[in-house]
Amino acid sequence: MTFGLTVLGTATPYPRPGNPCSGYLLRTDRTTVWVDAGPGTLAALQHHHRPDRLDAVWISHTHADHTADLLPYYYALLFADQHPRGPVPLFGPPGLADRLETFLAGATPNPASTAFHVHELHDGHRAEVGDLTLTSHAVHHGLPAFGLRATHDDAVFAYSGDTGPCPALRALADGADLFLCEADGEGPHHCAPEDAATAARGADRLLLTHVGHTLTHAEAAERATAPVARPGDTVTIR
């Protein structure tokens, strides 16, 4: 049975031609989860999967470059040619539903709940989605933010979300078959490529993403001694 990651976009803090912001698909033969919904990723997703047949959406934090496509997704699910079986499970940090409803003001009372069944994350939050287990770990990003550890059988995928170096990041990556880590740049709330490499010492493989505008992808890859994710890539986790 397969367990793979498809890269929808990696750009920060705004989409570039041919590269949406942060967004990924985690897929097994039975289950598909959209991880982060940055602007442009809903369109990219449709090359790989029907939006109304996602098993869940998982959001690391509320910054727009990770969430903005939840808004057109809401309209796709309720007012277009998509036919979801019911509200899509949406896992995200505290306050995510309120932000959606602020944007959607005037649609209907409690509009987000018509499209999404929202589950608020906390450190150690665990959810069973199809044949995936999703465990969330609080990381350091200056606001509530989470990394993801997803398991399928005995294979492990870890994703940093956006975070600075912290003990939780190293624990997240430890023992992972594939660790997807941001490399936005040096600073208290983001990782430099070297920080990603340090956190990944306990993982089998490191894949960089979310490379900041001060770095070229080639520079980031050289500094971390690891490849950079590219839109459209599909990687087998194990």
UniProtKB/TrEMBL annotation:
This is MBL fold metallo-hydrolase. It holds the Pfam family Lactamase_B_2. InterPro entries: Metallo-B-lactamas, RibonucZ/Hydroxyglut_hydro. CDD domains: RNaseZ_short-form-like_MBL-fold (cd07716). Residues 32-210 form the Metallo-beta-lactamase domain.
